[in-house]
């Protein structure tokens, strides 16, 4: 797959790059994408939730009324889940939500996500760039030149760039991610993927066979 390389002004540089078909042009495996996204979201959960059940809640255990002869149902202690302020039934307790996936499946999921974006023409290749100083306006102008100002966009870079990062961090719909940290959730959660030219080789090295 061949894509045009643009500069920060949105102009065609006259250069093209050929994306590796093994990474950017595979048949997407939707179930692999689902599993990888599910694992990513599960790993974000702290799992520190807890609830008070009948054995842990404080309160008297005395019977609230006569158990027989009233014509109604028996009533237990004030800790009964049926009463206001009572215990919770089958409530959550601290647990670890993390689970494992095979490396091959995770690699397939990432390739499927990249191929999905490529096949829907949602990948833009941008030549390497830098800002002389951190300026949010400079990054906004960059987005406008690429017609991505109102879209959720991921910029894939090869290495951390302080000025570029500081220029983009106040933009809620824009994120900078190093090629080595690229994951299926971020790819699928974005409308568009802007790949800096120097990071293409890192992506293909990481996810290629």
Q: Could you characterize the architecture of this molecule?
A:
The chain is an alpha/beta fold. The chain folds into two domains: 2-45 and 100-207, 3-Layer(aba) Sandwich (Ribosomal Protein L4, Chain: A); 47-96, no CATH class. The protein has helices at 21-24, 30-44, 103-119, 136-145, 162-168, 184-189, 200-207; strands at 2-6, 12-18, 123-126, 153-157, 174-178, 192-196. The two termini are 17 Å apart. The protein is elongated and about 95 Å long.
Q: Report the span from N to C terminus.
A: 17 Å
Name of the CATH superfamily of the largest domain: Ribosomal protein L4/L1
Low-confidence stretches: none
Shape: elongated
Q: What is the tally of helical segments?
A: 7
Kindly report the average pLDDT value. 91
Within the largest sheet, what's the order of strands? 2-1-3-6-4-5
Strand content: 5-15%
Question: What number of domains?
Answer: 2
Q: What is the β-strand count?
A: 6
The CATH architecture assignment of the largest domain turns out to be 3-Layer(aba) Sandwich
Rg measurement, Å: 27 Å
Main pleated-sheet profile: 6 strands, mixed
Please give the CATH class of the largest domain.
Alpha Beta
Q: Tell me roughly what share of residues is in helical segments.
A: 25-40%
